[in-house]
Amino acid sequence: MSRSFAEFARDKRGGIVLIFALLLPVVTGMSAAAVEYGSLVKRRSELQRAADSGAIAGVNQFKLANTDDASAVRTAIAMARAQAGNQRPVAAAAEVVGTHSGVRVTLSETIVLTLGRLLNLPSLDVRVQSTAKLAGTTRLCLLALDGLSMGAFHLESAARITASDCSLYSNSINPAGIQGENAAVAQAISICSAGGYAGRANFSPQPATGCPVMRDPLAHLPAPRIEPCLDLGSLLNPKKYVEDPDNPAYGKNIVTTVATLNPGTYCGGLHITKGATVTLRPGVYVMKDGPLVVDKKSSLEGVNVGFYFTGPRAGLLFDEKSVISLTAPKEEPMRGLLFFEERNLVAEAVSSSLVGSLLGGVGGVVNGVGNLATGVVGLVVELPPPLGGKGKPKPPPGGPLPLREYRIISDEARTLLGTIYLPSGRLIIDSKRPVADQSAYTVIIARLINLYDGPNLVLNARYGATDVPVPRGVGPSSANTELSQ
Hints:
33% strand; 28 strands; single chain; elongated; 4-stranded antiparallel beta sheet; 485 residues; 18% helix; alpha/beta; 5 helices
């Protein structure tokens, strides 16, 4: 029998289901709106952090690179975009504020709203801004000067570089100007490449790309005077006929005993070997036409000493079993410089055909890049001999460029206090223990910088913990960088 309408109206069974069905779209919409709002808040925070990083990197250029407003703006934009990620197009702008004392970065992004279409609001513009003001100088602790090579700054295997208080920089415009392979780790305040970066290493933070080429901050330094050659004679080499015969390619001045050496010009280089223990008196030691080699369980110690390398056959090898402890001079002519090499080797060693191939490899885009190819002309005249030591020397990642090589493969090179300045050379660090970690500060500026095996190169920036000065151009930081949003 059919029920009347009045009876149906009085029947409340199934009312909950009806109410739930009516409210379900509302609840679902509110939940979706909450999720979308949370996503917007998260993305805005990401953009704000990217803008902060860009502003800091940009303002740092005024002290780090001796640069102009345009370079600071380019660096700020490059860093901000790198930190913002590439999931969506981000509009970035930067401007200099004050008198080279601040950089303001603005990031904006249009975000498509899923629910916005229902409210006639299909998208939303998110805009953030950050201003960094510099109240002191910034810290540069590593700069690879080569403007063209792949892997100008290169890490592989389990190599690690720790620069918690300073910045890492590569001038190479190659798409792989910075390379990090295998389990390598690079940690710094900022990492910047004039070109790009490649590899599977753990970079912290992610390198900014497209940074302006940095002028050599130590190009103003004059070379020390080269005195007449010293003659050590044979008294310091009592083990001349013990073990292996002397190898002149490793240095013509040979020490195989306990000795204290004086500063001066060591023509043909200096070889400390066969268990020798050498202490250096303060001053400048010139390695002319030969390398500085410490090997076979020998040790080298010097306070307030600097080494100047000149001639195509100069170079350096601190072998695996050596013990090294060196601090740079406090006085001129090498104030704050631990290693310094002459700058004209590139003109002697790199052929014009090689330069042509390098230019082709990066598209030939070198106009306006500064001194990338300055002096890279002429034919090969004489190449330095390869220095042995642990393992087999590896060619540079970008090809066998004939440069002076400086190999630190010692497992006991804990104190290297000062600035390592090798504008024409290749610095190779290939050890299994920390390097330079017991130094108050270490700054490295070299044409190529390659880390292999498993070292932890520690670049401290505790300038106030030592009376060894820092050369002008890479100086200390005396105040904080202030951020405002």
